[in-house]
Write a structure and sequence with these properties.
By secondary structure, this protein is of the alpha/beta class. It has 13 helices and twelve strands. The N and C termini lie far apart (about 60 Å).
């Protein structure tokens, strides 16, 4: 076994990664978690912790998790990333799209970074290619923001007379602009008119859902990071306002919303934990291909449909992965 002095020399000369150096000191590796929107008790953190435990890590003993969240404020990310880097973690997990991963990458070019829900990591400058990222960043990509056209098709299928659809949009979310553009194209093809309802902070969500009900007959939640942590809240509000709504993840219909279609977020975060495990055991992000979703799930809340007076066709119910009754 290396002496402490030898381990520190190897780390200083780049021959040991921070993770392997921590192992030499017999100190549990630190994992920094940088999130744009998710809270410390959110689905992403619960999924990560659960998967880490399944892999044999126990927070506080075999692993220490340091969480910092920007509460939806993009301009806070650089400072939070710098704080995480100063703590010398073995790796950083960036949750909530490209922004936290970009902030972490700016703060360090040596500490491994694993991202989740980045729709286009190449265009965002996170990796050189999906097959060989080539730097200190890799992760699990998401196609959720590209599925809004399919979500509009599903809304039109269950509400054939639908004409106006409210779209909750955070204008400060850079991923919302291209996602909204794709939704607009799909809406024209389907004969639908989109009504943008701006929501800049979590505190504005209640009012935004109320406005959506007065301006449209249904609502679409874009597959962008801002609203992901608040899907249960939006689902409950939609049920209260009798607003048919579709979004990117099952947390929405589980809380009272009508439908969701998208990647399984819990599985995505579990896969990110698997990638982190491989890095902690010595793998290099540069050699780890970016993983992409291969399966998508349709979840329908039959109780919500009944309360809204919507008749669901047997064909649609057969296609659904989960029907909540």
């Amino acid at each position: 076994m290396l002496s402490r002095r030898a381990a520190l020399v190897l780390l200083a000369t780049g021959c040991l990664t921070p993770a392997s150096a921590a192992a030499q000191r017999d100190v549990p590796p630190r994992v920094g978690v940088l999130s744009l929107t998710s809270g410390p008790d959110s689905l992403p953190l619960r999924s990560l912790r659960r998967r880490f435990e399944e892999l044999g890590y126990v927070d506080g003993r075999r692993l220490t998790v340091d969480f910092l969240g920007a509460e939806g404020q993009v301009d806070r990310l650089p400072d939070l990333a710098a704080r995480l880097v100063a703590g010398r973690p073995a790796l950083i997990m960036a949750l909530g799209g490209a922004e936290p991963a970009s902030a972490a990458r700016t703060a360090t070019t040596t500490i491994p970074i694993v991202f989740t829900i980045a729709s286009d990591p190449i265009a965002d400058g996170l990796v050189g290619s999906l097959a060989r990222p080539g730097g200190n960043v890799t992760g699990v990509s998401s196609l959720n923001s590209e599925l809004d056209a399919k979500r509009l098709e599903l809304l039109k299928e269950v509400v054939p007379a639908l004409k106006r659809v409210a779209v909750l949009v955070n204008p400060t979310d850079r991923t919302a602009t291209p996602a909204r553009g794709r939704a607009e194209t799909a809406a024209r093809r389907l004969g639908l008119q989109l009504q943008a309802v701006e929501v800049r902070t979590p505190q504005e969500i209640d009012t935004a859902v109320g406005r959506a009900r007065t301006t449209a007959e249904a609502a679409l939640l874009l597959g962008t990071p801002f609203l992901f942590p608040h899907l249960p809240r939006v689902g409950a509000l939609a049920a209260r306002h009798r607003l048919p709504v579709i979004g990117p993840s099952r947390e929405l219909p589980a809380a009272g919303g009508l439908m969701s279609y998208g990647t399984n977020l819990e599985e995505m975060f579990r896969r990110a934990a698997d990638m982190a495990d491989r890095i902690l055991k010595g793998a290099r992000p540069a050699d780890m291909p970016v993983e992409q979703p291969t399966t998508f799930e349709l979840v329908i809340n039959a109780r919500a449909a009944e309360a809204l007076g919507i008749t669901l066709s047997p064909a649609l119910l057969t296609r659904a992965d989960t029907v909540l009754r």
